[in-house]
Amino acid sequence: MKKIIIALAAMLTFAGIASADHDRPIQFENLPEKARKFVKAYFPDEKLAFAKQETDFMEVSYEVMFVTGTKVEFNSTGEWTEVNCRYSTLKPELVPSQIVSSVSQMYPDVKFVKIEKNYRGYEVELTNGLELTYNQAFELVDIDD
Question: 90-114 burial string, b = 16+ CB within 10 Å, else e?
């Protein structure tokens, strides 16, 4: 009996893990309203390659990819969490002004190619290859190359 219970528990665990990561393509109209407004405001001329909804256990997120290679990720409420311009640079208005000011003082000729935000703060990647991490008070806390 003990072996049967252990086998059932293992099967349920593996079934849960297998179904935990579920991505599915969606139409642009199925994104949260806040995400749609963000895309229309900051990427009005970009051609959409695809949009998808990602479900990971109890968490839902969204991803939008443009033909140019730019990718934007959103959380379940439609707040952006990452913007990654693989072959171009970010529009400066996507980066908080405190970070723009800090970076322009340290590296006057570089631009931003990626920004991520989370509960701890922001991480930006620059055209010179550096990754800078800022806390919520916009203080520089780490530099990676």
Answer: beeebbbeebeebbeeeeeeebbbb
Fold matches, 20-86 and 89-145: yes
| Side-chain-facing half-sphere of 84: CA atoms under 13 Å | 13
Architecture of the domain spanning 20-86: 3-Layer(aba) Sandwich (3.40)
Strands (E), the chain: 21-26, 48-56, 59-66, 71-74, 80-84, 112-118, 121-126, 131-135, 140-144
CATH code, residues 89-145: 3.40.1420.30
pLDDT band for position 14 (50/70/90)?
A: low
Give per-residue pLDDT as tens, 24-68.
999 999 999 999 999 999 999 999 999 999 998 789 999 999 999
Entry pTM: 0.82
